[in-house]
Structures are given as structure tokens and as C-alpha cells.
Amino acid sequence: MTAAAAFTLEVPNPGRWPIFGWFAVLFLAGAQITAFAISPPDRDMGDLQKILYVHVPTAWNMGICYLLVAIYSFRFLWKRDDRDDLIAASAAEVGTLLNGLTLVLGMIWARPTWGVWWVWDARLTSTLIMFLVFAGYLALRAFVEEPDRRALWSAVAGIMGAINYPIVYMSVRWWRTIHQVQSTPSTLDPTYTFSLRLNAVAVLFILIYFIRRRYEAALTERVAEQVSQAAALGGPLNA
Amino acid sequence: MAFRDEWLRARAVAWKDLMAERRSKAGFNSVAALGVTILVLFGFALGPDAEAIRAAAPGALWLAALFAGVLAFNRSYQVELDGGALEPLLMYPGARRSIFAGKLLANFVFVFLLLVIVIAVSLVLFHITVPSTWPRLLLVVLLGEVGLVTLGTFYAAMASRSRAREVLLPLLLFPMLVPVLLAAMQATKALLVGDVMHDAGAWTNLLVAYDVIFLISTFLAFDYVIEA
After folding, report:
1. B110 near B28, Cβ under 8 Å?
2. Which residue of A80, A97, B51, B170 has the lowest C-beta tally within 10 Å?
3. A137 interaction partners in chain B (CB closer than 8 Å)
4. Please, are residues A195 and A38 in contact by the beta-carbon 8 Å criterion?
5. Which value does ipTM take for this structure?
6. What digits encode the pLDDT tens for the residues A148-201?
7. Domain map of chain B by residue range?
8. Which of B162, B202, B224 minimises the CB distance to A174?
9. Interface mutation vs chain B, best among A84, A129, A152, most B CBs within 10 Å
């Protein structure tokens, strides 16, 4: 089906992306230092509040990753370009990583603040379910070897996972609110907001770099698959 | 006319699956036995205290249906894959979604019979008294089953044709089923105590919304899943 068109794929050139990677890491370090320096300790939480400068940016960027998965999955179903599938896969991997980080960092913050590692609140629970949904997505990719099939199926699974998120959130919210009302105070000092946004941008750079490098690797693997397929069929080795 | 043709095709697929099942009975008997076993194990996990068992009954019931149902979903493609019959089935004229509809229908009947057994056994084991609101309870059971079977049949179309299907199906399916299981358990729980809090209605609405959303999206997506 897509085999003829897909054979035009080329091994990507990293170009200046490694330099961008160093920039992203240094930018993140700088953003963290800035946030620590300018924001005063929280009245109740003290310096514990600083963990929010990694927790909240990873959570926001996780959302961006999953949005990218949904967009590129739709684009793949529409255009059937292998590159869209590989971008979706790369975004899903980075998204799952950030999702795991969000959960762990949140727990580290929750333990001293709420006294427990975990509460069954709508946001926490739906974040965990999302992690499991995308763990399933990555397992699906790992367990299906035929490239066209893998691309189609994971596009569908990615879209279904994205559709599921608001429903999971709603259902857990109802489940909770029937028993107890959740309080989430969210009034922030301007220095906090600035630091959060600065770090969100920093994590966004890291995200772009990760997705790009992961995409290069995925594309290289895909080209290798095509070459070995062509060789097995006795075709030309011109990829 | 076209709709009627599709319905006839779906019915033929469902009939074929159910007939194959009825003639062997091996699948249903083992899945039903597994469902009952899971209920018994829940009884041990929740302890001999009758009150605790009764309170946890809705959860145990739905989880037993879920774990046993998963085997049914993979089976519904496995028999055809083993016999090399899926490819010819796809080559028949007409929309692929009627194949999905047929599989869905057959699984619905299969899981419904499973639920009848699981519910009957849990009535006995978990000391449940049938409430006066039982028609609404039946509605909740059917709505929950639609959600379970829709996504189960859909994801099994992928999982059963991959390596490691035993792991892959639950891994894909269970997180997606969280809302439907949660809603079905909560509605069942509320109705069993006579819906004193009047929250069963909200959960039933959620079940309906879930069923509609995923029925539509799986029917739209099935062509992509089966084409590869």
C-alpha cells in the first residue's frame, strides 16, 4: 500500500540539533536557578514549593506531547505518510516519560504537603490512567512488527486514548465529589507565575529536542526495516 | 436498503460465531467457570465478614465479568485466525463495519450469558437481596456491558493478531475501560441500596455517553484496524 511511497524515506541528518540540545539543557538549568533565586519561599510550603518548577512544567508539556500524538495520528490516517506515524510515536514516548516524571515529582511533593504519597483525586488519577493508556500504546508498537499495520493500529490507539482522557477525568471527578469535595487553591504570586512559565518553556525546548532525536532514530530504524525488506524480496538496495 | 443489507451481514457473522460457540461450548464453559472462580477468590480476599462482602459485591461482580470477558474477546478472532478464515471473511463484499457489528453482537450475547451466571452466583455468595429498582439495575448492567463489549471487541481485533496477545489486550483495554467500570460499579452499588443518594441517574447518564462515544468511534476506526 504505502510501500512504494515510503521508500522515499531517507536517513535524517542531525544537523545542528545536538547544539540545540545543549542549549535546551543550559536553558533549563538557567530557568531553574532563576526560579529559585527570584521566588520567595511559600508561606505554608516553604522551599518545598520549588518542586513545582519541575512538576508543573512537565505536566503541561506532557499535555503538549499527547496533543501532538493525537494530531499526527489523525494526519497519518489522512495522508498515510510514515513520517507522521514516527512523529506520533516519538511524541508518545516523550509524553509517557514526562507523564511518569509528573507522577513521581507530584508524589514527592504530596508526601510532605498532604502527608500521603497518593490521593485518589481526579487530576492525579486521570494522569495515572493516561500513563497506563500510553504504556499500552507503546506496548502495541513493540508487539506489532509489520510496519503498515503497526502505524495504522497505533494511530487508532493514540486517538482513542486522547478521546478517553476527558471521560476518565469526568468520571473520577464525579466518583470523588460524591464522597468529598476537593479543594485546590490556585492563587499565585507574579514571581511564581513567571518562574513557572519560564521553566515550562525550558521543558518545551527539552521536549522538542527529545522528540526530534527520537524521531531521527525512529526514521533510521524505519529505513533499515525497508532496506532489509527490499533485500529479502531481492529488490534494489538503493535506500 | 443498504442498511438492511449491512444488518443481514452483521447478523450472519454473529450467527456464525454463536453457532460455532454453541457447538463446541468449550469456550463458554471455561469462561463462565473462570468468572465464578474469580467471585470465589474475591470472597476470600474480602474476608468472611458478610457486611464487607456485600459492600464490595458490585466491584467484584464487574471485575469478574471483565476478567472473564477478556478471554471471550480474544477468542472471537482466534477461532477464525487459527482456521485461516479471517481473510476470506474480509473478502466478502460489503462494508467491514458489518463484520465488526456481527462480532459485537455475538460477544454481547456471549458476555450477557456470562453476566447472568456471574450475577446469579454473586447473589448467593455475596448475600445480595434484589432491590425493588431491579429494572434500572438491569439497564445499568446492559449499558455497562455495551461499553465493555464495544471496546473489548475493538481492541481484540488488534491484540489477537499481534505477538503476545494475552498481555496486549488487557494492557490496551483496561485503562480505556476505567470510566465505564467506575460508572457501572457506582450505579450498581447505588441501586443495590435503593438509590438513597439519587446518584445512580448521573452514573447511568455517564454510561450512556460513554457507550455512544465509543460505539461511534470504534465503528469509524474499525476499517483502519482490519485493513492492515
Report:
1. yes
2. B51
3. 172
4. yes
5. 0.88
6. 899 999 999 999 998 988 888 888 888 876 544 444 445 566 777 888 889 999
7. 2-227
8. B202
9. A152
